[in-house]
Amino acid sequence: MILDPNHLSALSSILRHGSFEAAATELTVTPSAISQRIKALEDRVGAALINRGPPCTGTPAGLRIAQHAEDIGLLEAKLARELTLDQGTGPARVRVAVPADVLATWFIDAMAQVDGLLFDLVVDDQDHSAEWLRRGEVSAAITVGGQPVSGCDSYALGALRYIATASPAYMQQWFAEGVNERSLALAPCLTFNRKDNLQRTWIIEQMGCRISPPSHFLPSPQGFVDAAIAGLGWGMNPVGLAKSALNDGRLRPLLPDAPLDVGLTWQVGRVLSSALVPLTRAVRQTAAKELLPSQS
């Protein structure tokens, strides 16, 4: 099936900005023209592509087709570079799924090393970024563990170290008699969102049992650190974010020498692998500086 590039750009722009009007402004056409392009595209594929908002969001078919359009843009940009052609359409856009802690600690440094790309980041809990790749809604992702996603090239990056931390006052209030099954079952913890299993994983590793402590839901890596310092709860914080507070005593480890190391993998769709070589190189080089070596 051949799809009109103008129709595809209209779809991508609507999903990027959340409205027909904003898409019309970006593409320098009227909202009526955008509406006509979307109707023609929906007639062509035989499915609804947009949930009319506000904001406008994509249906599963719409999200998949929009990602297809961005993939085409990446490949065309690569071809233009190889043929030393002028790129009149501007930089290509790449959609990448990135765990929030990775974005907060080192991924921006990798992004800064790559020219000619506009980034559209999907930020999710680390255990679920691979799902975006499996659904075909992103071109690349940083995933947990080494399990490759079908149709992707995979590169082990290293391990992001977490430490279970809390404020000294919190430790005195909840763990005065030690960190054990009983105290962990009562002490409030911090959880990124309802997909976040880091705290439970650490408890299983240290205690050998499953415990579901009371929890605050706080979808912010820096907010995690701030909330722990404020005494709201204990949580798994990346060493890079918690280092300063650990050094000056605002945070303490729940247990000595009990880190949780989470292995990360860079995965990129095989069709786009050659077009994203500069990004892959930057991600791997930055990860080598910031992460612990992968365990064999």
Description:
With 296 residues, this protein is α/β, with parallel strands linked by helices. Among the domains are: 1-90, Orthogonal Bundle (Arc Repressor Mutant, subunit A), CATH 1.10.10; 160-261, 3-Layer(aba) Sandwich (D-Maltodextrin-Binding Protein, domain 2), CATH 3.40.190. The protein is 45% helix and 21% strand. It has helices at 5-17, 20-27, 31-45, 60-82, 100-111, 129-134, 168-174, 181-186, 198-207, 221-230, 239-247, 277-290, and strands at 50-51, 57-58, 92-99, 117-124, 140-144, 152-166, 189-191, 215-217, 235-238, 252-253, 260-269. Strands 3, 4, 5, 6, 9, 10 and 11 form a seven-stranded mixed β-sheet that branches. It has a two-stranded antiparallel ribbon with strand order 1-2. Helix 1 (5-17) packs across helix 4 (60-82), helix 2 crosses helix 3 (31-45) and helix 5 packs across helix 12 (277-290). The chain is elongated, with a radius of gyration of 22 Å. The protein starts with a helix and ends in a 6-residue tail after the last helix. The model has no long low-confidence stretch (mean pLDDT 88).
Layout of helices and strands, plus pairs?
Layout: H1 5-17, H2 20-27, H3 31-45, E1 50-51, E2 57-58, H4 60-82, E3 92-99, H5 100-111, E4 117-124, H6 129-134, E5 140-144, E6 152-166, H7 168-174, H8 181-186, E7 189-191, H9 198-207, E8 215-217, H10 221-230, E9 235-238, H11 239-247, E10 252-253, E11 260-269, H12 277-290
Parallel strand pairs: 3-4, 3-5, 7-8
Antiparallel strand pairs: 1-2, 5-11, 6-9, 6-10, 6-11
Helix pairs in contact: 1-2, 1-3, 1-4, 2-3, 5-12
